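Why does residue order matter? Because the sequence determines the fold. Keep that principle in mind as you read this record.
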Amino acid sequence: MRGVTEDQPLLDAPLLDAPLLDDLMPWSTAPLRLGRSWIVAPDPRTLRARWDRLVAARGAEREALFRSSRARTPSSSVAALPGQRTGTVRLAREAGGCPEPVRLAHGPFDEQWLLPDHRLIDSARPELWRVADERQLFAVEQGYVPGAAGPALLVTGVLPDGRSPAGRPGRIRPLFRRPGGAEPNLAPGLLPLLRGRYGAEVAAADVLAWAVAAGVPSPAGCRVPLPADPELWAAGVALGRELVGVQLRGARGGARPRLPGGRRPYVRVAVPARPAGLAYDAAEEVLSVGGGRISPVPAGAWEFEVGGARMLEQWFAHRTAPAEPGGLEAIGPAGWPQEWTSELLELITVLALLAERAPERAALTARALAAGVDRAALRAAGVLPVPEGARRPASVLDHQEEGPEGQFMLL
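Structure:
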């Protein structure tokens, strides 16, 4: 958030001694590399229209629409993504129906839709798709930007692409290494150590909750100070669970986020079909979307930043930026769909709720840094260094995956 710099004064000696998230959740992947922007859209109807336009084209026209890269061309021979029923014939010969779009966390706080076809994605990180299910949570570590405010770690229940608004990608860390919530992605020995120190049961979700509440960005990655005080740990886990619940927006059986009565944003004037811009009146707490008006919108929601970018402005730009004529990106809704307004109201609520807890987060982190479990203590307990096997994905061998041209892969 602009003006909220709770993370900045903490880059000192105690922070440098604090464990990295990489020490605690060792298996991670780089962000997805999509390769072409037209395979992502804010609504699934747009993706189906783009697919139909692509398969209706032939030869050089199809290749031009596809937008080949070094990793993918219409002639690439590619296996199916794990868990997805899509074609594996070369895209140059594809004449079938559109793959069913799936939800994608397209950067911070922006859930969009993706065509989950491996032939369209330069680097899809299949190991993430193998463990994505109704039990999985993904921690998305934000890339470090000097002087930028905002959270170091975000959580989503849908597959994230790991996109960074500042162009400095972080890492994607699943909470579990196997489907069904099996085998937590935690350093071996970490849970027994924490249970002994805090005198209470500690689950993988508790470690993630604490990291969301207390994580601090640093040049080496997200640092997570672990407190010595069991009561502080319990308070941080409780706060972190609330923050995770807000970010999940009702997924995983939680309640959808809501502001207290009288503070909930409402549409006062309908958003026009083609809003020209976004503006904020701090005195009136009014967000203008073209000629539309939404209020009350707390200043914390408007100012909320990740990686130096305001989230509301970025969300709006992703839906209104002009596309190059003639390409598949130019295919989109004729006007502003009603569901976008609903999504915008929810996003305002999410950002406002998170902004309200920023001072609490900062105080919690400062207390944990003052007296905590540092990396030396983790080494003494045998938790560090992390075995190399814990940094690699687990072998998931309980199903067949279709390889190129319809052949089943040998796993």
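Residues 8-32+125-258+359-406 form one domain.
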